[in-house]
Design brief:
The chain is of the alpha/beta class. The chain is built from eleven helices and eight strands. Strands 2-1-3-4-8-5 form a six-stranded mixed beta sheet, sandwiched between helices. Helix 5 runs parallel beside helix 8. The radius of gyration is 18 Å and the shape is elongated.
């Protein structure tokens, strides 16, 4: 039995033209990705601590290199050519490979990491087994708890988006079960001015979700019919203009942190 989360209806299978190996086509959504998805320092610090003392780190599904520690040797794996091309000059070039078949010998890395990527894999169990195989020390996964995704206020405006997101993320217990007996799960608080623009990062800045490019950088929006997206955006815009959003959620505009669905799993 595969540990992969079921893909949303209509999601493409196999690798896309740019090499993207999951259900999202980063050849399309990657256009604005690095403008909106910058590493958040507080989250980066948690990942850095979880990696322990490892000097050589593998980053699986590395994208443009967010959250890669500067103080260590990093080897990056990324199947999307579009995302590999967006890696800044200071980052090592990424290897074209997928989580389920890592081209490294056993125990080659002191630690490994995967951030916002396990929901893209075709086989969760195989991908985590490969990470465990090539890693002597901690395996660090940054993901979202699908049981918590729809509790965010955006569900009142774009339920199809959050439903798609919840379907894609594997259960936390499924990830734990693949990583061994000693696994810890940390709730990761999201700061008000979070630089990493996933949906919950805008918990107190709802106007950002009216921006087409901001939504494009959150892959769940790409699985929703354009008419449904337009209706969701119109609903949110109307409630912001009419003060209805602020009447219900305005306290979030000054709340320093939000306890959402973000989780750090360390095995």
């Amino acid at each position: 039995m595969s540990g992969a989360a079921p893909a949303p209806a209509g999601a493409p299978s196999g690798r896309h033209a740019d090499g993207s190996a999951g259900d999202a086509n980063y050849g399309v959504i990657g256009a604005s990705y690095t403008d909106y998805r910058q590493p958040e320092p507080g989250i980066a610090a948690r990942i850095e601590a979880a990696l322990g003392s490892a000097e050589r780190v593998l980053n699986v599904g590395a994208g443009a290199g967010s959250y890669e520690p500067d103080s260590r040797e990093v080897v990056a794996v990324e199947p999307s050519q579009s995302m590999r091309a967006k890696r800044p000059a200071g980052r090592p070039a990424a290897i074209d490979a997928v989580a389920e078949k890592l081209p490294f010998p056993d125990g080659h890395f002191g630690a490994s990491m995967a951030t916002f990527t396990v929901h893209q894999w075709t086989d969760l169990r195989a991908g985590l087994a490969e990470m465990r195989r090539v890693t002597r020390g901690p395996v660090v996964i940054l993901t979202c708890d699908p049981a918590e995704v729809t509790r965010f206020w955006l569900n009142d405006y774009a339920p199809a988006v959050l439903a798609a997101e919840a379907r894609r993320y594997p259960a936390i217990a499924a990830i734990q079960g693949c990583l061994g007996n000693t696994v810890r799960v940390e709730e990761v608080p999201i700061p008000l001015q979070c630089r990493d623009g996933f949906n919950e990062a805008y918990y107190g800045r709802p106007e950002r979700l009216l921006e087409d490019r901001a939504r494009l950088a959150c892959s769940a929006w790409s699985f929703v019919d354009p008419a449904a997206t337009a209706a969701s955006v119109a609903h949110l815009r109307a409630d912001l203009r009419g003060g209805r959003w602020d009447a219900r959620f305005g306290h979030l505009r000054t709340q320093p942190e939000f306890a959402g669905s973000l989780r750090l799993i360390v095995g």
